[in-house]
Amino acid sequence: MSNFVSEEEKCIHLDAGNYTLTETLSPAGYASAVSILFTVTDSREIQTVTMYDYPIQVEISKTDITTGKELPGATLTITDSEGNIVETWTSTDEPHTFQLPVGTYTLTEVLAPEGYATAEAVEFTVTDTKEIQKVEMQDYPLGVTISKKDITNEEELPGATLTITDSEGKIV
User: Fold this and answer.
1) Most CB atoms within 10 A, among 37, 84, 94, 137?
2) How far is CA 13 from CA 37, 39, 56, 159, in A?
């Protein structure tokens, strides 16, 4: 049977034989490790068994819906299921990768890049896996269609010269 010798040494005494080391609760932000089968031999040397945990990685892509390319300049926030902000950043031309614990989260665009509409929030769930978990949020470019029509027949009226000005009267 096992006896815990010392908190510092983490050394236990086992009889010679075959055993399985299983992680029953992984640290926050880490995927559960695969169980390890090991054998204790009849030896005077202390035998070591090491279990490794992989960090749970999440990759957030902020893309232009028309091109599929990363869209820099968006201010993004991730909140947990209780509404606490856990990550805030500004998008770049590369996906944002970081570590998150298992749970349900919401990705929100606080500020869209110039020329783009603000995207709807995206809810996602982080699971217990060592694989990188990918989440994508897409932005639509802002666009306006200008049409000049004949009022009597609703047909396009060619030949007109039009000017668009902003709220300060500057021509855009």
Assistant:
1) 137
2) 17, 13, 32, 93
Which letter does DSSP use for residue 121 in this model? P
Q: How many residues does the chain have?
A: 172
Gap between the Cα atoms of 114 and 116, Å rounded: 6
DSSP character at residue 141: B
Tell me whether strands 122-126 and 103-111 are parallel, antiparallel or unpaired: antiparallel
CB-based contact 117:142 (threshold 8 Å): yes
pLDDT, one tens digit per residue, over 40-88 is: 999 888 888 999 988 999 999 999 999 999 999 999 999 999 999 999 9
User: Is 0.90 topped by the overall pTM?
Assistant: no
